[in-house]
Amino acid sequence: MDLAAIDAIVVVIYAIGIFGLAQWVSREKGGHAKNSSDYFLASKDLPWWAIGASLIAANISAEQIVGMSGAGYRLGLAIASYEWMAALTLLIVGKYFLPIFLKNEIYTMPQFLEQRYGPTIRTLMAIFWLALYIFVNLTSIVWLGSIAVNKVAGVDQDVALYALGGFALLYQLYGGLKAVALTDIVQVTLLVLGGLIISGLTLNEVGGGQGVWAGFTTLLDQAPEKFNMILEPGELGYQELPGIAVLVGGMWIANLSYWGFNQYIIQRALAARSLGEAQKGVVFAAFLKLLMPAVVVLPGLAAVILAPGLDPADEAYPTMMRYLPPGLLGLVFAALMAAVVASTASKINSIATIFTLDLYAKYRRVATRAEDEERVAGDPDAAGHAPYPPAEDESLRAANEKHLVFVGRLAAAAATVIALLTARPLLGGSDQAFQFIQEFSGFFTPGITVIFLLGLFWKRASEAGAIAAAIASVVLSYAFKEFMPDFPFMNRMGLVFVIALALAVVLSLAMPSAAGRDRITTTGISYRTTAGFNAAAFGVIAILVALYATWW
User: Fold this and answer.
1) Measuring CA to CA, which residue among 423, 418, 335, 415 is closest to residue 142?
2) Contacts of 283 (CB under 8 A, 6+ apart)
3) Please, which of 129, 182, 285, 531 could form a disulfide with 52 given CB 3.0 to 4.6 Å?
């Protein structure tokens, strides 16, 4: 479809407005130059609303909107488990993970691994995450986002690819995480508003113009099989959503890894001004996740009635957009762009953070502002860097900080260029790119979850056990895929997790860490949460129980 003039105007206004807002919110006071804490951690001053909105904006991209709608068209409401179970996962992250991360002033996930296990695993995982983020995640976001733009607006895909990647890079290049996080409330508002508009209009169409509720009840009457949340063996989609395992099996492994230990997600919470703000932020994100199926799944369900016979199913969302009048089409298209830009910018910033703080600063022995307090506390070599120059030599310290910010920007630009140049060679020949990416990432997910859970909650876990779990995760996942191809992907993740966990425990007991290797402190940490957090968590759980009880 083509955008009308009014639609193009709406999109241009969005682009100019969000770019200008990003530069404005990330400006510094006169005389203050950005340091590493400002650029990579938003000065550790993010409020709860920015954290919650940014978590969702980093998570939802155009390919997920199109893909989830397509899955809703093909599998039904069962695909919403990815969104609803994430809400519960966020509560666990806020209550049990963030107190440890923030108490120990963690700013990257590889840094946590070094302080908990040792330097080898920090380097290995930093390199792994950089490769995954650049060649799998970043390429997929811009490539599949460009496909969505091409289908919806008729823009040449290569033009869309470079325009999306270039805009996302420039959008966050000056301000870093602050530019991303403080504008994501606008991005998420646009994303949710656009999705609700298309859901409302298409459901009204399903109901013969009698309103949204009439359309929803018509869907329930005419396609009841699409409202089965727990699939049975033999049902369409069981291989992807294998029944009760959705609630008690492998989905937990994927969710804990993604929401708790994934740098480009958790970085927002690590930049909170306090633990309380971080916890309020994840609760806000949890409620947004409860709402997301209305944004990304309902259009696909409406397409079951309005456009039967679609092939491929991913055509559902673009097809439903044709019901939008001029002006509203531009708004929903801008929401798609907001999803792509927010996710891409978040990924770029996290790549820059890991490269600069976990590899460059470590091996060039450049001190970072984020580590200053740790050294002042009495362990000059705690993070493996040379101490800062004497406090009175502020010019040298400032030069260090300015250099690190420059390296971060350079890394961001280089990663974006590499992703744009490799997107077509890596993904252009695949008609199942999104599914392949999910499964490829799943090779590593069980091992990552084992490493972090043991690192957080079992003091005897050692670096040998952690490395073994990482290797076993990849080897076992590949073996199961090759020799048991019909074994559901989600169940495979759960089984690999159990085996990797057992191996990590055995090797940790057989090969314990050297004394003093573990520098993560849990002394004095309380997992008690405020009455407000507890009430909100109860609300999330009650809604989940009601949803699953209704459509079990």
Assistant:
1) 423
2) 52, 90, 91, 94, 533, 536, 537, 540
3) 285
